[in-house]
Write a structure and sequence with these properties.
alpha/beta; TIM Barrel; Immunoglobulin-like; eight-stranded parallel beta sheet; five-stranded antiparallel beta sheet; 15 helices; 16 strands; about 35% helix; binds alpha-D-glucopyranose
Length: about 475
């Protein structure tokens, strides 16, 4: 009894301190369960840059344009046609299970009414709304997992810029008014490992702490004011090392105390819950859980001349490739400054939704497929491993061949056409040598999907694979 009481006392005491609430594996798995099964999410970059004369933040950092000119877009950011319920409806019809919206990009402009500084959409633009409040309420109501992107850095913050760019507040103000290449300075220093070797003076440490404190307070505002935030999508924790300490471990604990179900991507030191791939589909499967983000056109934010739209077919294929590697696809679109979307984006999202609806068994609640070699193309497995999904990117010239499967095939169908059982046969095989041979499936041309055709192979048991080296059969 005494021991129980001591344990109880200790755990209550440690919990109060925020210690002991470590993310042990079982709770991590619980937190991440929805994410592993979600497969498809929508990412949105929205801010003053959505007026579309520049892309997000980078142009003023790289000196293409002054921050003053960049910010002149603010007066045209109205969000006057923003209808968050309509957004939610579109995302649901697109088949997305989660959404991520930029609460603040590197330009430091908050889409919510932060108390930490005055750089809010309400203060700087004609839009007199707390956009994060409206967005989160609508997404939560619609049952979408609700995520927020947050840039750790703010390239207009005098404390941050003083320590990373050697600029006084006055100098920073001057540089923000002209095109100035902050990025060049930063690259040069980065290349020399300057930041991680730099020793901050006690006075500089205070400046850094003040910056990080504002950063933490903003995050806690986001987590405490807008109901259940399911995901924080961080970006750009830099510099991180040497005297540039973010305290991300403690921050994560605090965030989890505020919101025990929260998950975060991996751009937060070592505290990430899942991996983030960008700018190219991975070839070697990342450790799970993971997510791949990609833009629908070329840019993250809306730009009127950004018309290099990916075809729906390509987007569906990317989704299949992510699923086949056990990952999620986070597809980025940029809402316009008035809160509406490019009709070409809407069209593609709805077409993706149609495809997903038809093929949803091979999308949600699946796991990564077979290793290369069994089949030429991406595949996925149902969670019980009794169904194998083959994603056919091209129209087959003859029957489909799958190799190295011991399990007995029950039947093969094409998703969307359950009534039509396909003709299958097993060829080759040698029981005495444990060689399963090949499964052949006839695929009727008239049932092919113009984007990706999904074949479903159902087995009597969880799939049992032949993974031996091809061997000589000498006693035949
Ligand atoms: C890159 C871009 C940044 C964007 C992010 C989204 O890091 O530089 O602007 O927000 O990708 O993943």
């Amino acid at each position: 009894m005494k021991r129980i009481l001591i344990t109880l006392f200790l755990s209550v005491f440690l919990n109060q301190l925020g210690i002991g609430q470590t993310n042990d594996i079982s709770t991590d798995n619980q937190r991440l369960a929805w994410f592993r099964n979600a497969k498809f999410g929508i990412f949105m970059h929205w801010g003053v840059y959505s007026v579309g004369r520049t892309s997000e933040s980078w142009p003023f950092f790289n000196g293409t344009i002054s921050n003053k000119d960049y910010m002149s877009q603010a007066k045209e950011f109205t969000a006057e046609n923003f209808d968050p319920d309509q957004w939610a409806d579109l995302f649901i019809r697109a088949g997305a299970r989660y959404v991520v919206l930029t609460a603040m990009h590197h330009d430091g402009v908050a889409l919510w009414d932060t108390k930490v500084n005055k750089k809010t959409i309400r203060n700087l633009t004609p839009c007199k709304k707390d956009l994060i409040a409206e967005y989160t309420a609508a997404m939560q109501k619609a049952g979408l997992k609700t995520g927020l992107y947050y840039s750790h850095v703010d390239w207009t913050n005098p404390d941050y810029m003083r320590l990373t760019q050697d600029l006084t507040a006055k100098e920073l103000k001057e540089k923000l008014d002209i095109p100035y290449n902050f990025g060049g300075f930063w690259n040069e220093r980065n290349g020399k490992g300057y930041y991680t070797n730099k020793k901050l003076t006690p006075e500089e440490k205070k400046v850094w702490t003040r910056f990080v404190d504002g950063h933490d307070r903003q995050l806690l505002e986001l987590l405490s004011s807008y109901g259940q935030i399911d995901l924080l999508w961080f970006d750009f924790m830099h510099p991180n090392g040497g005297d540039f300490v973010w305290g991300e471990k403690e921050l994560k604990q605090k965030m989890l105390q505020q919101n025990p179900a929260l998950i975060v991507n991996n751009r937060i030191g070592n505290e990430g819950d899942y991996h983030t791939a960008e700018r190219g589909l991975p070839v070697v499967t990342p450790d799970e859980p993971w997510e791949y983000s990609q833009t629908l056109s070329d840019r993250w934010g809306y730009m009127p001349n950004d018309k290099n739209y990916k075809s729906t077919r390509k987007l569906v294929r990317t989704l299949c490739e992510c699923i086949a590697m056990g990952g999620n696809f986070l597809l980025d679109i940029g809402p316009k400054a008035d809160g509406t979307f490019d009709p070409e984006h809407v069209k593609r999202l709805l077409e993706m939704g149609d495809w997903i609806k038809k093929n949803e068994e091979a999308v949600y609640e699946t796991q990564r497929g077979l290793l290369p070699g069994h089949f030429y193309g991406p595949t996925a497995l149902s969670l019980d491993k009794k169904a194998l999904f083959l994603y056919l990117f091209d129209d087959p010239k003859e029957d489909i061949q799958i190799k190295g499967i011991h399990s007995k095939l029950k039947q093969a169908t094409i998703l969307g056409h359950p009534e039509k059982v396909l003709t299958t046969r097993r060829v080759g095989g040698a029981d005495w040598a444990n060689i399963p041979g090949m499964i052949l499936v006839d695929v009727p041309r008239e049932l092919l999907d113009d984007k990706v055709t999904v074949l479903k192979l159902e087995f009597e048991e969880p799939i049992n694979l032949y993974r031996e080296k091809g061997k000589d059969i000498v006693n035949n």
